[in-house]
Design brief:
Blueprint: H1 8-20, E1 24-32, E2 36-45, E3 51-61, E4 64-75, E5 81-87, E6 101-107, E7 110-115, H2 121-135
Amino acid sequence: MFSRARTADEAIDELEVWLSTLPGEFSLDVYPLVDEYEVKIAGSLISSTCRLTATIVITESDDELDVPEYRFDLRQPDGTLVWRHDCHPGHASDPGMTGPQHLHVLRGAGEVRLPEDRQTLELIREALVLANQQLAPEG
């Protein structure tokens, strides 16, 4: 997920820098737990006013950084799902899935879960910028 971070502290620093590159206002809260950090992000994109919430679990052991779980949830101002990139236990054995990472999108009248590769902050940033451009009101 992280391009440069090798420790949990560096990962949190990288997240702060990453948030500063997004077109919007965001908060970042860090919750140190027993063997991990839970990072919560919340805010809105400026042009589209879509709301992003995210939870990222960061673990560090023997100088190795890992992100076993994440959730990046983007919603329109009325609460309608735009997309949600997830990585967590529970769906890896579902038909068509290739691991714990997956994407939620709307198809027709319902939400579907699609397999996907593990996300990076750069990929999420690109998806956020694209959604912000596509969903911004004209004018």
